[in-house]
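Students often ask why inverse folding is considered easier than folding. One informal answer: many sequences map to the same fold, so there is more than one right answer. In these notes we will look at a single instance of the problem. The structure comes first.
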């Protein structure tokens, strides 16, 4: 089973390594423990500009068992415990849970992967579940004093920047750079104009030839009448 887990994780690592919103390092070169820089690149987010360092661990039963996830620096958020762990359904073991009321469709299943977990975490940062908060005070503040909550979020963003690796450049957008604008080529347009003139000249000559033929036909008709 560990061979299948390693193969699956290595493929997921290669795929995520191409993304701009996550910076992943394999802890001590192993595949079962990842250090992740989760980037928030969204001007509408209270956590915009954050580089939130987290740790994910996997067992040799992955993907049948969910990974664990925790932030390595405290974040004031309704669904984040003081130790950095999350209260999020996708990380809970498979199957229905009558005690919590969570459905199997909300919890982990082998079709999920690291990317789906990270995207769920990013979504949770901006859309907290305050019905059953891990941090009650943060839940109350989010509900009753959004300005103060946003201030706390920006404090977390500023603290997170201490974890940006040396030499790492934070992207400011997830969009690719637009293609270079095509510069007008004067020679191209000059050639096109010349072609147009040449075409016009042909048309003019044809008109003149048609007129000459009409005149000759009229002269022939007059001579026959005489």
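Output (designed amino acids):
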């Amino acid at each position: 089973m560990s061979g299948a887990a390693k193969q699956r994780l290595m493929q997921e690592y290669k795929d995520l390594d191409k993304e701009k919103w996550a910076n992943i390092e394999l802890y001590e070169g192993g595949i079962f423990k990842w250090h992740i820089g989760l980037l928030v690149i969204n001007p509408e987010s209270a956590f915009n500009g954050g580089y939130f360092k987290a740790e994910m661990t996997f067992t040799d039963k992955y993907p049948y068992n969910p990974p664990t996830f925790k932030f390595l620096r405290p974040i004031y958020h309704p669904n984040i415990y003081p130790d950095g762990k999350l209260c999020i359904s996708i990380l809970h073991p498979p199957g229905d849970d009558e005690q919590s009321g969570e459905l199997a469709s909300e919890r982990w299943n082998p079709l999920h992967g690291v990317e789906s977990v990270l995207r769920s975490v990013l979504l949770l940062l901006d859309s907290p579940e305050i019905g059953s908060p891990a941090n009650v005070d943060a839940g109350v503040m989010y509900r009753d004093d959004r300005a103060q909550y946003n201030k706390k979020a920006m404090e977390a963003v500023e603290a997170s920047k201490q974890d940006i690796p040396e030499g790492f450049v934070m992207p400011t957008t997830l969009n690719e750079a637009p293609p270079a604008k095509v510069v007008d080529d004067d020679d191209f347009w000059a050639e096109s104009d010349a072609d147009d003139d040449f075409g016009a000249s042909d048309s003019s000559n044809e008109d003149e030839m048609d007129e000459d033929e009409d005149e000759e036909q009229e002269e022939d008709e007059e001579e026959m009448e005489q």
